[in-house]
Amino acid sequence: MLAVIYHFVGKKDIIINAANKKARIPKPGAPAALPSPQDVQVPVCPLCNTPVPVRRGEMPDVVVGEHIDRDCRSDPAQRQRKIFTNKCLKPGCKQKEMMKVICEQCHKNYCLKHRHPLDHDCTGAGRPLSKAG
């Protein structure tokens, strides 16, 4: 099998025949060789070095950009995106708040909806201070 390597230099393509190491410049208007359908390269994320799968017809740059925006584990901006890190400790609640909301009785962190002792079934100081609701 004959191996051919293409290089782009300035305004001209240089074709190097790997068998005899000779370079030639193709004639103007000559058809360019198309890549084989079996030649598939999987792009790698530049931040986390994981392969990013690309479907046929998708632009690899766009898919890698979406990976960086959504799924990348070592994105430097990921730490900055985590503003709401204070998770509510009420079972079943997945709400996160920007600031800690600590119950004065049980000293646990809750969201604004469950911040009152009656709202999170507080077991801190015996019983809640009020039953207003």
What would you note in describing this structure?
Keywords: Metal-binding, Repeat, Zinc, Zinc-finger. InterPro entries: AN1-like_Znf, Znf-C2H2_ZFAND2A/B, Znf_AN1. The protein has about 130 residues and is an alpha+beta fold. The chain has a domain at about 85-125: Zf-an1 domain, CATH 4.10.1110.10. Helices cover about 10% and strands about 15% of the residues. It is built from two helices and five strands; from the N terminus they run βββααββ. The chain has helices at about 60-70, 80, and strands at about 5-10, 10-15, 20-25, 85, 95. The chain is rod-shaped.
Query: Would you identify the CATH H-level superfamily of the domain at 84-127?
Result: AN1-like Zinc finger
Can you list the strand order of the major beta sheet? 1-2-3
Taking Cα atoms only, what radius of gyration do you get, to the nearest Å? 30 Å
How far apart are the termini?
Answer: 82 Å
CATH domain class name of the domain at 84-127? Few Secondary Structures
- Quaternary organisation of the protein chains: single chain
Major sheet description = 3 strands, antiparallel
Query: Percent of residues in helical segments?
Result: 10-25%
Second rung of CATH, namely the architecture of the domain at 84-127: Irregular
What fraction of residues sit in β-strands? 5-15%
Query: Could you spell the SSE succession in H and E letters?
Result: EEEHHEE
How many individual helices? Answer: 2
**Helix/strand/pairing category:** alpha+beta
Poorly predicted ranges: 4-11
Kindly state the mean pLDDT as a whole number? 73
Approximate shape: rod-shaped
Strand tally, please?
5
Q: Do you know the CATH topology of the domain at 84-127? A: Zf-an1 domain
